[in-house]
Amino acid sequence: MATQLVHLPEVERLSRACIRVLGGNPGKFSLQGTNTYILGTGPQRLLIDTGEGKPSWIAAIKKTLEQESATITSALITHWHHDHQGGIKQLLDQWPNTKVYKNQPESGQLDISDGQRFEVEGASLVALHCPGHTVDHMAFILEEEDAMFTGDNVLGHGTAVFEDLATYLESLEKMKPLFKGCAYPGHGPVIADGPGKIAEYIRHRRQREEQVLQTLRSENSAAGTADSASWTPMDLVKVIYHNVPDSLHPAAAGGVLQVLDKLRREGKVSVDGDQWTLSDRSAL
């Protein structure tokens, strides 16, 4: 996240039926803050995500709804991370009759299933279960705009983290053909070409995978072991991320481990302790 983030207003109307309200929680991983979205054009509105429940966020939500002469009837949570559902209590304190929906719901919440529809005046949403970032991750297609709320699977700046790489890539492939317009991400600015950005994400992940394979095919002169074709994740990081500061290498190692685990499940690599090797070098 070394590049400068663009400024985003605390509250901004992005389209006739979509208002973004920042969560008031800027940071290294949350960028300008969590994006929460008020949807609809009538007196009843949908809300996507609740930020962390910061006082500035709930105040901005309340002021915006007063200006719109509207109220929140349903809140849709993209996934369980605190910066997306941490404001549920504050929301219910203001609007206690709001229905809260989340995949794999917690106490008092309602379930979101794949293909479920949510409608208010001016906004029709179709839910899409797209795990990878988290197992419960949901995206939402806004039919009126042929747009998608991508949660944390696709961000407006940089790349996303994920719990399972193979599942994440499957979800990206599932998301890409379902809309043609913009992407409203969980963090960062609106992405004008949503499917194009998803394609870029997929290419990036495939390239990282190929980098790991290419490095495993080479001899590890730094390993200092009898088998110089074996690599630890950090050995791989030092080659693949050689132009990245050492302080960021531990975080990069997590991503490399995700790639290695995917390749292991595909039978392409094997592991002994923390030493990783190609499963069949003779085939190369």
UniProtKB/TrEMBL annotation:
Keyword presence, Zinc: yes
Sequence ranges assigned to domain Metallo-beta-lactamase in this UniProt record: 33-187
GO MF: hydrolase activity; metal ion binding
Cofactor or coenzyme needed: Zn(2+)
UniProt KW Cell cycle keyword: no
One record GO biological process: secondary metabolite biosynthetic process
SUPFAM superfamilies assigned to the protein according to its UniProt record, in alphabetical order: Metallo-hydrolase/oxidoreductase (SSF56281)
InterPro entries, A to Z: LACTB2-like_MBL-fold, LACTB2_WH, Metallo-B-lactamas, RibonucZ/Hydroxyglut_hydro, Sec-metab_biosynth-thioest, WH-like_DNA-bd_sf
Keyword set, alphabetical order: Hydrolase, Metal-binding, Zinc
Coiled coil: none
Domain of life: Eukaryota
UniProt family annotation: Belongs to the metallo-beta-lactamase superfamily. Glyoxalase II family.
Protein name: Metallo-beta-lactamase superfamily protein
